Structures
1.
Amino acid sequence: MEKVSTKKHTHFAETFDGITLIRAFGKQNDFKKKINELNNNWITCQVFQDACHFYFQVRLFFLSNIMFLCSGFLCIHLRGTMAPIYLAMMFNYLEGMNNRLCSLLHGGKEIRENLIAV
């Protein structure tokens, strides 16, 4: 992804340096063709990156919710054998882990989208 983006920026920088030569030799169509090719490559990389992030996010949400559900069942199963404060602490700890995992994924995606928007 970074290499594709770097190629695109390099192409723009070289074009601005040589804009008079491009116009003098009538190479505007070659420039348009090259920039469209670089944009298509960048968009393709972006789509694959978003798909991978979404797949990872769904897997992590599923696993964290299973962990949360299992902790609830464990608290119900152990309610007569352990002190309620220990069960509450365990459940609260696992709930916090679940929330942190979810916020980590959301935060990472938002930061990346904000960096792209700039």
Note: The CA atoms of residues 19 and 28 lie 9 Å apart.
2.
Amino acid sequence: MKATSLKEAIVRIFEAEPNKRFTLKEIYESIPDVCELTEVQKELDEKYPQPHYQHDARRIIAVLEKKGIIERLDRDLRRLKPRG
């Protein structure tokens, strides 16, 4: 069953491989596999040459980092924060 939100999709991607270090590109490429994107989310942004969902994903990832769920290892590298 596909995720019902972009946030849920991102969390699922990290939880499916809890020890993996993901680049943003890998996260972007995985999202359509786990979440049904709307046509608006797939459309290219007028100002930036990328689909809207990629901008939304970066915003969600930043929130998950602040909440301590995801850890930022480098500019383009994230992982699920180890528990404990």
Note: The helical segments are 6-16, 24-34, 39-42, 52-66.
3.
Amino acid sequence: MGRAKRARHKADAADIAGALVVASFIGRLRARGLSVREAVFGACRRRVRPVMMTSLTVLLGLVPMLFATGSGSEIQKPLVAVIFGRLLTSLALTLIILPVLYALVNGLGPAESNLGSSD
């Protein structure tokens, strides 16, 4: 297995792990009785560091391949650049889009966000 292919597999694992960490923690907070809003915000606050560290570790491992000059580097560089960009995009999706989608699917709308306010 080539270096670029191994990097792609590590990126896949980081993508899946990050999403699972956030989603499972939201589920755990919901099981404790928190509202959808509290669970989503709480999970995002508490799980930003583990998700970021997982993705950044893989990204740092790809940096030498981006600047490689040896044989085969002209083929590896574009692939590694794509994997690098995909990991950055996946990180944003995991930390921004996943919580928003979770909240929308589980009923956090304008009606629920006003429940906590006193009239």
Note: Residues 3-64+72-108 form one domain.
4.
Amino acid sequence: MLTKYRIFALAVCLIGLLSSQPKASATPTTLLDSLGQAGHYAVFSLAATYQNQSNVHIYGDVGVGPKGSASVMAPSTVDGTIYKDPTAKVSGPGGITGGIITQNMQQAVADALNAAATFNAMTPTVMLSSILTGTTLTGNGGTNVIKLNGDINLGGANNLTLSGSANDKFIFNIKGTLLMDGSSQVLLTGGVLPQNILFNFIGTGKSLMTHVGNAVQGIILAPSRDITFHGLFGEVIGGGKNLTLMSGATVTGFPMESGRPPGVPDSSSTLMLGCLAFVALAAMRCCCRSRVCLQPLREKPRR
């Protein structure tokens, strides 16, 4: 029989396990969650993509897909960890505060491609030919799917402003490209979250490019496009031949809720394993003392 101390410890363990379980969610909370493993990184280059960092600062983790490569040139700094596929290469004398971890990146690549296809299949709520001047789009309080057959091409002080609330999600499915110059920006007002802004560039096509003075908030998902970017708050995912961050560029990734790298179990999973181990140990000790489980019952000797 378990002692009262073991029973008390077991009760505490189970209470902690129940209280640590995350609340179930039927759907992803933000568009960032919809990216699966691909949503972990501030910068993520897909299969066979060359990632070039020259005098840049990245706040967040970096992913390098299968057969890809990343050049981190001084004085570039990655304030995070670089996760690279076993077939990928990382070179350069730039700083990487979290070091380099080699792990299979195929699932993260698949998640990015699946997300792009899923977003592209969504029924549009707004259809535009292009965005070539200062434009404000107001959300409907839920999911806004904007289909563009042309480009987002902003120069001077022309901005793309997305207005709404924290419940609004803006998904752009774009057949054209993104070109920004001057001081143009993507601005959010009314409580719209950058985690809920996603620019999905469909198929192959022209390269995406921003310049010094431009600022984009949200997620750039371009599985088949070359990218040359300067400033971003969010995440950029590129799968063309080159993903280039210009000299002086800053990319500020989304803070991860878990604060842990991919593949590391969360606290509730770790606690569950601990509880199971405790129960197993207690049961073994109980069996050993009663001699029920570890050896057959013996008849009492006759007098």
Note: DSSP finds three helices and 23 strands in the chain.
